Amino acid sequence: MNPEEPLPSPGPNVGARPPGSCWTPERLELKAWLDRNAPSLAELYEGAVCLLFEHRLAGYTRLIAHIVREIRNRLPFVISGSSSSGRLEYPDRLSEITEQWRKANLDVGSSFQSLGATPSSVGPSPPAVAIPLDLFRLLEKLITDHEVTSEKAADAFARLLVGRKPENQKFIKTLQPVISQWLHVTGWFVSKAHDSGRVDAAIDNRELLKNFELFETTLFAIVRQFFATTAELDQILKEANSSCVRPTSEQLQDAVGRLVHGEHHRYFFDRLENPEWLVPLTEKGFFKSPPLPMPDESGATVALPVRPESRYLARMAKLAPEKVTSWRKNASPVSNQKSRTRFSIGFRKGRMSSSTKLDGRNSTAPPQQMKK
Q1: Is the pLDDT score of 364 beyond 50?
Q2: Are 131 and 106 in contact (CB under 8 A)?
Q3: Is 30 a domain residue?
Q4: Distance between CA atoms of 126 and 119, rounded to whole angstroms?
């Protein structure tokens, strides 16, 4: 930013607010749960709410971002009882690599001793470069730890979902869209946690508030009793089913943020009666991952659960067959056999025009095999 340029003017939300007005029953419930289960995180959460809604101290955007990042990183380990390996300290690791690099006389910009032919534009691969084994091992370990750390956020949130509700273990693939949204929302805060030269006024307060409330929505759904969340889903479903219109981004995110339990997922899809949600839900990642097969107690046989998404598809095929026909041209396959059969039967019963005919093919064939 040019120091001679005027700073962006503060948004309308900047400034003090009446103390206590932000503490809704839901926030008080979440704070009380954190007080019981993770007292240090409860303090951080209280601080974030106060900074955002009561009094915005200088640097509040980065402080809130740090708090969200800490809760995202620590809560799964607190709830699951496992230990965190901690963050990857890149400066320390790179300093160690740099020391070995210098010891090997591999100054930056120096020529390397190649193994093999001279570089050429012709040939399957460039020549190899010789480096000391100790240096190679340091680089290999850094790359491995980077991959583990990069994967940890998704794995940690899955551990949180299972830690709170162990039965979620069998629904983890089904809950992938919820995990993806959580990573996207919290990732926004992670990207703002360190100073980048941007002042508070340069951060869109509406986006900050929207992402913080989505962060809270998912936490509320995780910590609350099952039927408290279904009551909230009922409100979303009532609005969704009252008119055949596409959901807004906010409505979609609000719904997805509450599907943190496999039974919430089933509850929502079994009651959704709006075909306009089909494409937005697909874009969120639903209709891709089937539930895992469920072995019986003896382990001799397994059950293939019927996907709630397939039941929704079958109903929509009757209600809006043209829309489902258009959707399935670009959608990923419906995965297990029972789900394929239910979808195909529903689709067959829902045919209402020549554009939805299956050209004489077996109605139980997988959708990806049907002629388009």
Answers
A1: no
A2: yes
A3: yes
A4: 6
